[in-house]
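help with this record:
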Amino acid sequence: MTSVWVHPRLGEVTLSQSIRARRVSISVRATGLVRLSFPRGVSQKRALAFLDEKAEWIEAARERLARKRAALPPQLSPAEQKAHVEELRRAARADLPGRIARLSEATGLKYEKLTIRASRTKWGSCSGRNHISLSLFLMTLPEHLRDYVIIHELCHTVHHNHSPRFHALVDRLVGGNEKALNRELRAFTIR
């Protein structure tokens, strides 16, 4: 049974009581729509109390999703998309080699080779031979996040893993802000 309920703080919420639901759960769609699902054995009053308890979490999720949507470029035609990628490639070739050289010098972390690719799955990577690959889509990030990604990859030249020692090194090199920078980076998607 599905219905819509207007919450005083959250606005419209879709209520879905179902025999398939195993527990009370909340989902927030990319559009910001909220769905409250609960099993038949749970009263609507109890499910709504759970919703009230999670109102802050829902608002934070909506905010995070809105930031991600705002960061997405408008849909481009294939020709426009190709031109956009080529523009990013030119910008990346002009910016990233000098940026990684400066950060390598400043941190004392050496790499063997830099490659710039149109990777849409990762911002960067570092091979076991200390070859660093950076996505040209880094050019869509603010400069401080470009630096953070490059420092992260340079730290892999010392620790080829995500061990506590690796994270301690990254954290030290970014002034104790690794978690905050990583959280900020997650708000962006590669497009």
Helices lie at 44-53, 55-71, 78-107, 143-155, 164-173, 178-186. The radius of gyration is 22 Å.
